[in-house]
Write a structure and sequence with these properties.
309 residues; mainly beta; 2 domains; eight-stranded antiparallel barrel; eight-stranded antiparallel beta barrel; 22 strands
């Protein structure tokens, strides 16, 4: 029964309601706005629901919601095994909130109905939480808009973040990196703590492709780095490439990877010009921790975690 419940958690939604009411033959009604969920989405890293990580070892979910109210979800576990879920969905609005309701009628690999909620925010990212309702799972009740995300319950006890999914669009229309981010405490890369005694980093990426980074060490000395940046996408993942052309305090080029989720920014870059002998930058194909020295991956050493401000 647990397996049936978990399958349902992958389901998703979208509903395009088109109303036509013409009193005159020459009246043309504009098409209804397409629901924001109609897109292809990725959930990786901290975006994956903790419940899916612990029970199914899920590491990535690709969800596609079509304007004809069909959907397809491909879930990948830590062993690289993929499972595809598909069916149809419908959505509805709720007065006084941007959280929408969803009903999913899954047909593959099994017949299951699920209900829940979702919301696409102003940055174009989606939170999503559903639970199987048919066949009913004893003690489990689905989340409701009035109580918000985290309101899935077992025996009337809210389960919090356990089944909340965070998705980002496969092809965002705006740069999700834009904004101000803070890394401090255990989120600072171990390599920076060890070599520069860094305790805090405030990074600002602007829509005009400029950036400013202020690093503070354990003696409260600040150093400011600034320049321009560019990014590119990678097929099949929300991990993106970044190139930074630093001009202050010195001319340096760095390359690496980053991933924005609904919870954080994971970021790993390495100076490439002038090159540092023996070091190679991380790649999206090998993921975070793939910065290498003499071809040996350095793991978490240079991985930064930032929280959006």
């Amino acid at each position: 029964m647990k397996r049936i419940f978990l399958l349902a958690l992958f389901a998703s939604l979208t509903f395009l309601y088109v109303g036509c009411d013409s009193k005159k033959d020459d009246t043309v009604e504009p098409p209804a706005e397409q629901d924001k969920i109609v897109n292809t989405w990725y959930s990786e890293g901290s975006g994956v629901a903790p419940g899916l990580v612990s029970t199914l070892k899920t590491v990535k979910i690709k969800a596609t919601f079509n304007s004809n109210n069909s959907y397809s979800v491909v879930a990948t576990d830590s062993a690289g095994t993929e499972v595809t879920y598909s069916g149809t969905y419908s959505v509805s609005e709720n007065t006084g909130t941007s959280i929408r309701s969803i009903i999913l009628n899954q047909t593959v690999p099994t017949s299951v109905t699920s209900k829940g909620i979702y919301e696409v925010d102003s940055r174009g990212m989606m939170r999503y939480e559903v639970v199987q309702t048919t066949p009913e799972i004893t003690g489990i009740t689905p989340p409701v808009p009035s109580e918000g995300f985290g309101s899935t319950k077992y025996m009337n006890v809210p389960l919090g973040v356990t089944w909340i999914q965070g998705f980002v669009p496969a092809n965002p229309t705006t740069e999700l990196l834009n904004g101000t981010w803070i890394s401090e405490g255990t989120n600072v890369a171990p390599g920076l703590v060890l070599t520069l005694k860094t305790k805090k980093i405030v990074a600002t990426f602007n829509s005009n492709k400029t950036y400013t980074v202020v690093a503070t060490d354990s003696s409260n000395v600040d150093v400011t780095y600034s320049g321009t940046f560019s990014t590119t996408a990678n097929t099949g993942t929300s991990i993106r490439n970044i190139t930074l052309n630093q001009s202050v305090p010195s001319a340096v080029t760095s390359t690496g990877i980053y991933r924005v989720t609904t919870k954080d920014l994971k970021y790993e870059v390495l100076q490439t010009t002038p090159a540092i002998t023996g070091f190679t930058p991380p790649t999206a194909a090998e993921g975070f921790g793939s910065t290498k020295y003499n071809n040996i991956p350095l793991g978490a050493t240079w991985i930064q975690t930032f929280i959006y401000q």
